[in-house]
Amino acid sequence: MTxxxxxxxxxxxxxLAALATIKQRALAKALEITSIKxxxxxxxxxxxxxxxRQMHEANPKFMNLVAKExxxxxxxxxxxxxxxxxxxxxxxxxxxxxxxxxxxxxxMFKVGHVxxxxxxxxxxxxxxxxxxxxxxxALLARMRGHIGKIAGRYAGRMNSWDVVNEAIDEDKGWRxxxxxxxxxxxxxxxxxxxxxxxxxxxxxxxxxxNMHNPGKRAFLxxxxxxxxxxxxxxxGVGLQGHVGLDFPDIxxxxxxxxxxxxxxxxxxxxxxxxxxxxxxWEFSGAEISASFEYSDKINPYPNGxxxxxxxxxxxxxxxxFKLFLKxxxxxxxxxxWGVSDKNSWKNDFPVKGRTNYPLLFDRNFERxxxxxxxxxxxx
Length: 379
Ligand code: G3I
Hints:
Blueprint: H1 5-33, H2 36-39, E1 45-50, H3 52-57, H4 60-69, E2 72-75, H5 81-84, H6 94-105, E3 109-116, H7 136-153, E4 160-165, E5 168-169, E6 173-174, H8 178-183, H9 187-198, E7 203-208, H10 214-229, E8 236-239, E9 242-244, H11 250-262, E10 266-275, H12 280-284, H13 307-326, E11 331-336, H14 369-376
Parallel strand pairs: 1-2, 1-11, 2-3, 3-4, 4-7, 7-8, 8-10, 9-10, 10-11
Antiparallel strand pairs: 5-6
Helix pairs in contact: 7-9, 10-11, 13-14
């Protein structure tokens, strides 16, 4: 029997559709028995961040999902200075200890976040009892005391510490934080040395955002070279990875991976999430550091993501994961900054009360298409 061209095309597309369905089913079946962490186990750890509330409530659905899908964990807030050490001599260990126990139970790679940062650190840290600014030696003693206590508590258990966070300003060199202003540019050397004297085994990492920025890259590479000559025990660079649909330029991101790896640094993608919402300052014309008023115009998807944007999100994640796989020999870990879109900080930054879609799981903790696409790269 002969068939005409139209029948042939119809049959072919039916076959293709059937094949696609079979592939989808095979993928779904594969994903039932495996997880993203298992699919990438020969490449790098797949991590997530756990928020205070999630750790406190320890909702079994959430905790089981974390244990199933991820093999590296970071506390989103509870190990930051203001949370764990809010007043002189006052330490809150409850959530941090709980986190360590949970991660140990599931044999996860544990990341301590963070020892020295200009944000979420109380102002008393930089002042004496009379409220006057501390001098260099007094602040160094305080830094050493803090690091000694928290890194000491978990020494031998913690796999990696974000020792210093966000110390470099794009194109301007050192951020003029109280750490820099009081101690000077060697504050970072001190922090790494104090971390190492306390914990001889954890991997010690510098962590920052916008790591694709050429100015930041050049400054950090220069620091690493000189610091290594001085014997500073810096071992890794954390690229936070708060990215969007069209920023950063992926070739700049790659240039940074390459540059840090060439300095012998282990690479960690530490806080990955993908913003799909309009960039607020483009609408307000304000500076990046300003806070932004909510308006419906900058919250376009309150009831769900249109298919077209969902596809863009998925494609962009795939683009990044292809890059991560290319650098798999240098990358130790890719950590998402949260589990579900429901709990992402991206719903409230830089504008409060928006509906964002940056992570692998939706608001009901179901896998999103971006999850399947990332998984598919390994199936
Ligand atoms: O826990 C309180 C709650 O009791 C209170 O009712 C509520 C009122 O706003 O605030 C809650 O605390 C918030 C906390 O997140 C937990 O949700 C803080 O206000 C808020 O400032 C805090 O934001 C965190 C932010 O760091 C602070 O700088 C985000 O969760 C956290 O994701 C974010 O993480 C940082 C990394 O540490 C470093 N890199 C950038 C990244 C994003 O900013």
